[in-house]
């Protein structure tokens, strides 16, 4: 049997603004900027030994985001097996996302990359999705 949660896509870290977040996580800790999307107040930084990203966000709480095949189906499965729906699936620039809680109250942010991955310019600014 394969598991529903495929990988940790990202660990979201709340910051007051992207520039101060990048000043610490990029400039002090040395993580490379992968992408920056000022429109949604987020920036992704590379973890050198993993495909998981650090996502700096101005309006999201500290949490891991779990990569799944389908956010809608994962949320439905978790709820039907004793979990609870926190936030119904919604569109994000790269796919779909939902927030559920396990039977113990732990939030699970599940997302899929059904629309693709960010494309960026040389400075890491998001230019689209492919």
Task: Give your account of this protein's structure.
The chain is α+β, with helices and mostly antiparallel strands. The chain has one domain: 2,3-Dihydroxybiphenyl 1,2-Dioxygenase, domain 1 (Roll), CATH 3.10.180.10. Helix content is 16%, strand content 44%. The chain is built from 2 helices and 10 strands, in the order βαββββαβββββ. It has helices at 18-28, 71-80; strands spanning 7-14, 33-37, 42-46, 53-57, 63-67, 84-92, 95-101, 107-112, 118-120, 126-129. The strands form 2 sheets. The chain has an 8-stranded mixed beta sheet. A two-stranded antiparallel ribbon has the order 9-10. A hairpin with a 4-residue loop joins strand 2 (33-37) and strand 3 (42-46). The radius of gyration is 15 Å and the shape is globular. The protein starts with 6 loop residues before the first strand and ends with a strand. The model has no long low-confidence stretch (mean pLDDT 96).
Overall mean confidence score, pLDDT: 96
**Proportion in β-strands:** 35-45%
Taking Cα atoms only, what radius of gyration do you get, to the nearest Å? Answer: 15 Å
Estimated structural class: alpha+beta
Strand line-up in the sheet with most strands: 2-3-4-1-5-8-7-6
CATH architecture: Roll
Q: Which CATH class is shown?
A: Alpha Beta
Shape: globular
Total helices: the number is: 2
Q: What sequence of helices (H) and strands (E) makes up the elements?
A: EHEEEEHEEEEE
Q: Give the full name of the CATH homologous superfamily.
A: 2,3-Dihydroxybiphenyl 1,2-Dioxygenase, domain 1
In whole angstroms, the N-to-C terminal distance is 31 Å
